[in-house]
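WP5 quarterly update. Target: Tetratricopeptide repeat protein. Source organism: Streptomyces griseoluteus. Length: 463 aa.
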Amino acid sequence: MASSTDTPAQPDRPPRPNTAFRQMRGRRSPAEFAALVRRAAREIGERVSCDARYVGRVEAGEIRCPNYAYERVFLHMFPGRTLADLGFAPRSAVRGRGARPAAPPGAAPAAAYEHPYDPLNHEESDVLRRAFMTGTGATVAAAATLGPLGIATDASAAARRPGTSEAAAVEEAVRRIRLLDDKHGADGLYRRAAEPLRAAYALLDAGATRQTTAERLHSGAGELAISVGWLAHDSGRFDDARSHYAEALATARMTGDAGLEAHAFCNTAFLARDAGRPREAVRAAQAAQRAARPLGSPRLMSLLALREAGGWAGLADRTGCEQALVRAQALFGRGTCEADPEWMSFYGEAELAGLEAQCWSTLGDWGRATRHARRAARLQDPHFSRNIALYTAELADDLARDGHPDEAATAGLRVLDLLAQVQSSRIQTMLAGTARVLLPHRRATGVADFLDRHASLPRPRRG
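C-alpha cells (predicted):
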C-alpha cells in the first residue's frame, strides 16, 4: 500500500503496550478519559474524535505516535511532559518516515494533503489520503462533509488482500460518522455515509490474509452498518434503517460476535419502537440482553433494559415498563467498566433521563416526563449538540401536553436556535407535534413567536 513517495513499511510486529499513557488515565474509564481529551482539544481550538476505542489502541501500543492535532492536545493536558514521557515513539521512527520534518508547536502538518484533524496516527493515514487523491467527484463531495473517511477501493487496492490499514480505515469511518451525528444530526449525512459502507463490504469480499484482520473488518463493517442505519433511522428512512440493522445482525451471527449482535438488536428495538411496533421492540431488546449478558457490561445491560421499557410503554404496559426502568437504573448505578462497548460513549446520566422521559411521555404521564426531560437537557455534555436539541424538544412537547404553553414555547424556541447546527428529521417531527398542541394557545407568552418561527422552517432535505 506504500505510495511512491513513502518509505517501505516495516514488517508487522506485536505492539508494545504503552504503560506510561495508561498511568495517565488513572482510575478513569477509557470513555471518561476520551471525554477529557475532547474537552482539552476544545480548550485550544483543536478537533479530535477521541473515544474509548482510540484510548484503548494507544494503551495497547497500536498507535505508536499520535498525529499533530493529538500531540498538541496531549501536551496541553500534561504540561511539561514530552511525547516520550507519555510512552510514544519518535515521529521519525514510525514507518520509516525520518525524512519528513516534524512540525513546530502550533504549526500545520508539513504535507499539504494531510488533514490537520485526522485522528489516525501516521501508520494508518496513507489509506485515507490515497482515497481522496484518487477518488471520484462523489468521494470528494462526501469527504467535504464527513472528513477523512476514505477507504481505498480503486483498482490498486482491489489487486491485493486487505490488511490492518484497511481495517483501521473502516473503524475510523465509524468514529467519524458518530462524531458528526453527535454534532449535526443525521440529515445530509446518510447518503454520503453509505459509500464507506459499500467499500467496507467490498473489503470483506476481497478477504483478509490474517484471521485477526478479517475479524476486525467484519466487526468494523457491522458497526458501520449500524451507524449508517442510525443515520437512516434518525432522518426518517425506517425501511433503510431496518435493512442496515439486519445486515449488521447477519454479520454478527456469521462471525459469532456477541457484542455486535447486542448492538444490532439494541438499535432494532429502538427503531421498532419509533416505527410503532412495540411488541417487536420488546422482543428485540430481550434478544439484545441475551446476547450481551456474557459481555460483562452493566451499562450495556442498563441501556438494553431501557430499550425494553420503551417497548412496554408502547404497549401501554405500565407495570412492565416500570420494572424495566428499575432494572435499568440499578444496572446504571454499578458504574462504568472496561467491558463497556466503545459505541456507548453517549450513554450517561443525560441519556438515561432522556429515555426515561420518553417512556413516561408514551404512557401519558406528562409530569414525570417533563421532570426527566428537563434533567436530561441540563446534564447533557455540550459536545452532543444533537442530543441537547432532542431532549429540549422532548421537554417542549411534554410541557405543552402538561398544560404549560408558555414554558413549552420557550423550550421550543431553544430547539429552533439549535436547528441552525443540527439537522434531524426526528427532532423536526417532534417540534411539529408540539406546534399542533400549541395552536390553540397562541395568545400565551412566547407561543406566537414559536409558531411563526416554526412555520418558517424549511422542509427537511434528504440526501
